[in-house]
Amino acid sequence: MKTPHEMKQFPLHPEHRIRRFALDYFEEAQSDDEELLPIVLKACEIGDQTDARGELLYGAREFVVSPTMASELFRRIKDEPALQQDYARILLSAHPHVLAGLSNGLSSLPATLRRKIERRINLVSLKTPALLEEWRRFADEIRGEEYSVVDFPFVVAMAREIARRSDLPKLELSETIRKHEDDDPDDWYDDYEDAMACVLAGYLKDASAISALLDALDSDIDLLQERAMYALVRIGTQSVVDAVEERFGESEWDFHNYATGVLAGIKTSYSAAATVRLFQKATDIEERLMLADTLCRLTSPLEISAMKELRQQSDDNLDLLEVLYANCVVNGIDDPEVQQWKKSLDEIDEEFERRMRFEKAMVTRPKKKVGRNEPCPCGSGKKYKKCCGA
Q1: Which of 84, 129, 209, 352 could bridge to 201 as Cys pair (CB 3.0-4.6 Å)?
Q2: Distance separating alpha carbons of residues 245 and 249, to the nearest angstrom
Q3: Tens of pLDDT along 264-305?
Q4: What is the pTM of this model?
Q5: Packing angle between helix 84-92 and helix 153-164, nearest 10 degrees?
Q6: C-alpha distances in angstroms, 67 versus 21, 64, 83?
């Protein structure tokens, strides 16, 4: 099993899928390592496709931003319009005290982004009671809004600032996290107070909230489940792993889906051992696939033979193939079967890219039927009848 330090080389790997796997590793771990964001920006320079770079940057959206990196993101927001939103998303989750160092140059930013940064900088000057009042005020402000228009990174920024305060009173977050239990399950979810409490519990590493966070994993509210998962990863203790393992056997798919995310995020041998035990006991194929995926994301070399058999039992499951291949690469396992996996994945990627080029060409070209013997619009150089028209 690789350590976080050992994994830092892989975001710069020549293969995009390995770079993505390595950055997923750190995203899942909710890592607070300031060295990660510079590595992500270097990884973006390896590829020249805006979509691929945007994918890497999205995975880094809550990585820790140092003052140096804040200045670099600030520059890129102004100089790289195609990725402006991706850089801004990372910047807006930064510690407010880091953003305060940018206050002199904000006038050059788009007005909406400038106002969001100024609101975050203002948090630094608030005394702790006023800061907690701002937290409650924001919960009231976004209640009833669709998630797509909610500035949820502001919740992360506030949680980071609250967690820095040495005079913070004892906060009873469990009751707020369980607030969803009183809601009508048929109602549209638009009260974010419980999800916000999950974020804060994670940044405070509030062990007293573990039980409530586990209950939230069993809800049917995606945002709440995701934020409870991240919070449990941030707490990251053996008690969290034990509680997940104990509850796993008596729970259903929803809990399993996010509980495996908790185990995958806690990058310790203790979490890997618990996952191996669950994998060995599981009989349902979907449950085994989840746990196999988790072992791969933990970079565990254990049970690889069993996972190979599981692939065959699940009709060569593509999702498992991708993480199993990446896990073998980072662990230095390079046998003929792994090379065949790479070839298969490359062929799948090439087919996907070809289809995307074709669809783009068909959208942008004049409305005209492509003759079977004409060059294929995807740019492959083949005749249409032997390519996308086959």
Answers
A1: 209
A2: 8
A3: 999 999 999 999 999 999 999 999 999 999 999 999 999 999
A4: 0.88
A5: 30
A6: 27, 10, 20
